[in-house]
Amino acid sequence: MLLFFALLAAFGLAGCGATTTPAAAPPPAAQVPQVAEISVQQLKTSLDAGNPIFLLDVRTPAEFAGDGHIPGSVLIPVEELASRMAEVPSDQPIACVCRSGNRSLTACNMLAANGFDVELYSMAGGMRAWIAAGFPYE
């Protein structure tokens, strides 16, 4: 019996108020920037006001040339974005544009996951909505 209490004491389990050391809190998760949706009207207003915003068109080259694109936009197809991240500035807001809004959201999420800590916007409705609104395109 004495051996039993000696073992309990050795492992810090003796006494009715045995305590354990609380585990250290895990480090905070890295803050991932939020991706927001921007309407074509909001984007047009921002561009007209001269606000700095990088226009990233993530469609295919055929869509970019054949369907038109927003003046000043830079083409990096979403399929190539992972290998071309260095071409995207990390010091200004970025608006991603595609045909209808799906690929642009994917591109924004890719940028956020790769450490782009800037405002990231996915243009709602894509180029279809931009053209339907009567905004200029090339």
UniProtKB/TrEMBL annotation:
Transmembrane intervals: none
Keyword Signal: yes
Domain Rhodanese per the UniProt entry, residue ranges: 49-138
Pfam families recorded: Rhodanese
UniProt signal peptide: 1-25
Record key words, sorted: Signal
Family matches, as InterPro entries: GlpE_sulfurtransferase, Rhodanese-like_dom, Rhodanese-like_dom_sf
PROSITE patterns for this protein: RHODANESE_3 (PS50206)
Protein name (database record): Rhodanese-like domain-containing protein
Organism whose genome encodes this protein: Candidatus Chloroploca mongolica
